[in-house]
Amino acid sequence: MTADRGADGEDDPAPPVVLKLGGSLITEKSRPETLDEDALDAACDAIAAALAEGTVDRLVVVHGGGSFGHHHASEHGVSTSAGTHDPAAVMDVHTAMTALNRAVLDRLHDRDVPAVPVHPLSLSARPDGAEGDLDLPLSSTATMLEEGFVPVLHGDGVATADAGVTVVSGDELVVELAAGLGARRVGVCSTVSGVLDVDGDVIPAIDSFDAVAEALGASDATDVSGGMAAKVRELLALDAPAYVFGAAGLESFLRGEAAGTRID
Ligand code: IP8
C-alpha cells in the first residue's frame, strides 16, 4: 500500500479508487437470482490483477442489484422513493442482495483479494425522508481501507424517515463514497460501453451537462427521472474524474488509463 507524505510529515494514505460493477453486468437480468458467472469472473480477474500489479492500491467496490435486488424490490413495490413497512419485503430485498454480495466476495477471495462486506441497510439512513439525501457514515469503510481491506458495498434497503425502508442504489453509494472518501478516480462498469450519443456512439469526454443534454434525452435542467442523464449529472458534480464503460474497459480503467466516457 502506498502513501503520500502530508504537509505535517505524516504519511497520508493515497486516495482510493471507487468502482461500481453494475447489476446488469454481473447477473442475468432476465432470470431471477442468477449470476452472469463469466462476466463476474472476468471482473474479479481484472480487480485481482490490478491489486497484485499495484496499479490500484486502495479500492472500494460497489455492486448493483441486477436480477437479485430489483426482482424483489419491484414485487414489493419498493424503490428509491417508495418505501415499505413490511419486514418480509425488507428481508426479501436484503437477503437477495447479501446473497449476491456473498457471491462477489467469494470470487474475490478465490483470487486472494482481501474483500469484506459493508451492508448499507445496517449503516445508512435517509433521515429527511424518501426525497432527502442519503446519510452514509463512512468511518467503517475508511478504516477498512486503512487496514488494507477492499470494502464491497451493494445496493440495499435503507431506513427512511416517514417511509419505512426504501432502496438505496449502487449509483447513490458510489457518489457518496467518492465525495466522502475523496476518491482519486471513479469507475462505473456496466453492459453499456459508455455514455452514448444520438447515433449510439460512445461520447469520449463530458465536461458539461448542457453539451450532452440532448443526446441523453434530458427534457430540462432539473430532470430527475434517473437513467444516464441523472448519473452523468451526479458524476459531473464530483471532484474526481469518473469513467462510464463496459466490461472491455475495466482493465484499462484499473490501470489508470482512459475507458469509455470520461466525465470530469
Ligand atoms: O442496481 C439497487 O441497486 P442498483 C439494488 O445499483 C436493489 O440500482 C436493492 C434493488
Key terms for this structure?
single chain; 264 residues; alpha/beta; Carbamate kinase; 8-stranded mixed beta sheet; 3-stranded mixed beta sheet; 13 strands; globular; disordered N terminus; binds Isopentenyl phosphate
Note down, in words, how this protein is organized:
The chain has 264 residues and is of the alpha/beta class. It has one domain: Acetylglutamate kinase-like (Carbamate kinase, 3-Layer(aba) Sandwich), CATH 3.40.1160.10. Helices cover 36% and strands 20% of the residues. The chain is built from 9 helices and 13 strands. The chain has an 8-stranded mixed sheet, with helices on both faces. A hairpin with a 3-residue loop joins strand 8 and strand 9. Helix 3 packs antiparallel against helix 4 (87-110). The longest helix is centred in the middle third of the chain and has 24 residues, at 87-110. The chain is globular. Residues 1-7 and 219-225 have low confidence and may be disordered. It binds Isopentenyl phosphate. Isopentenyl phosphate (IP8) binds at residues 23, 64-65, 69-70, 73, 93, 97, 155-156, 167, 169-171.
Task: Quote the beta fraction.
Answer: 15-25%
Mean pLDDT: 92
Question: CATH superfamily name?
Answer: Acetylglutamate kinase-like
Give a count of the beta strands, DSSP E runs of length 2 or more.
Answer: 13
Oligomeric form: single chain
CATH topology: Carbamate kinase
The strand order across the widest sheet is: 5-7-4-3-10-12-13-11
For the sheet with most strands, the description reads: 8 strands, mixed
Number of domains: 1
* H and E string: EEEHHEHHEEHEEEHEEHHEHE
Tally of helical segments:
9
Morphology call? globular
* CATH class categorisation: Alpha Beta
> Low-confidence parts, pLDDT < 50 over ≥5 residues?
1-7, 219-225
Question: How much helical structure, as a percent, in the residues?
Answer: 25-40%
Distance from N terminus to C terminus (CA atoms, Å) equals: 26 Å
CA radius of gyration: 18 Å
